[in-house]
Each structure stands twice: as structure tokens, then as C-alpha cells.
Amino acid sequence: MKVAAFVTIKLNSSRLPRKNVLPLGGHPLCWHICDTLLACETIDEIYIYCSDEQVMGYVPQDERLIFRKRSAHLDGDLVRAQEIYSAFVDEVDADVYVAALTTAPFITARSIDAGVHAVLSGAHDSAFSAQSIQTFAWYQGRPLNYAPESIPRTQDLQPVLVETSGFFAFRKELWTQHRRRIGSTPHIQIVDAVEAVDIDTKEDYELAQRLWQRREDER
Prior knowledge:
Elements: E1 3-8, E2 23-24, E3 27-28, H1 29-38, E4 45-50, E5 65-69, H2 81-91, E6 96-100, H3 109-120, E7 126-133, E8 138-139, E9 142-143, E10 160-171, H4 172-178, E11 186-191, H5 202-218
Parallel strand pairs: 1-4, 1-6, 4-5, 7-11
Antiparallel strand pairs: 2-3, 6-10, 7-10, 8-9
């Protein structure tokens, strides 16, 4: 089965200007997810999906990275991920797609490969990364994982799983038939707090810089 990964990149950003090319660990932010994908054993093709070919100057210089020009209208601030996914799936044929985001610089090849293997096994129609958080959680005014009248020990709480931006792997038919990146039988790849980091704001970026520096100091 053919597995195609695609990294959606735009060089403009409203919340954090030029977010995707900000420096982190001596490289532009978008460099890191590309480097991770190159280390994956399950991926056959890796596409850089961007409206501007200048982006190739910000990613690893590796012939396995394929530039695929997308329509400039997909760079709009109101464009949803579904529109970008649909455009890519219409243009590039594969059996399994892996959507990888530049904002998750700490996701590992091991986690991505585990998710893709789960989809390729036939047991799952999709896979995604998530962080398991074992704490007292509420949503829309109601507790999610405990009853207020019977407060459990924290270690006995049912963990809440939170999607991260690490990766989404899905079978082609799941997207073409249902426009979904997560199906009815997903494999949930649990990642730690560092792999779960998602850079959308200045504060996220500063946290990523501190984490990167700590990792360098520990080497």
C-alpha cells in the first residue's frame, strides 16, 4: 500500500507572524517535521504542500521531499483544514495519507510509524496522536470523568485524551467517502507532554524554545 505524507505550509500567519519559518534549534520551525518524516520507515512519499516554492529553502535539502504547489486561496485565514486536505487528496493518489503539521516539532518518527502501522494492519481506519491527561476535567459546565458527590483519588480518574497536532493518518476512502481524518476505528497514539507541544502563539513558541534548550543541555 502506498503511504503519502503531506506537510501543509503557508509562509504567512496571523496569530504568530511567519510562524512556520521561525528559528528553533538552529533550523526553521517547518524543517523539524520534515526531518522527522524523512526518518519514518512507513512513508513512501513526502510532499511539501505550499503555494510558494521558496518554502523549499526552509526544509531539509533532501530529494525525497517533493514540492507540490497548492492554490494561493488555500492560504486564507478562514480556510479550514478540510479544504486543504481535499485539494491534496484530489491531486495525489495514495492508499493512506499522513497529514503532518509544522507546529508539532517534537513529534517523533516512532510515534508516526506506530500510527501508520496500525492503519496498514487493517485493524484501524485512521490514527492520530493524543495526550492522556489524568486530572479532574469539565466540559460545558459538567464533569467529564468523575462524579462531584464521590471524589476519587487522582490516580483512579479515567484519563481524558486530547488530540494533538502531531499527525493524522487515514485511509483514502475515509476521506473521499466521509471527509474525515478520524474514522470509527481509530488507533490513538499516546504521546508525552513534549511530543504534544503545538505552536500557535508566542507563548507556545517560547515554551518550545525552552524545551529545546533543555534537551540540548541534557545531551
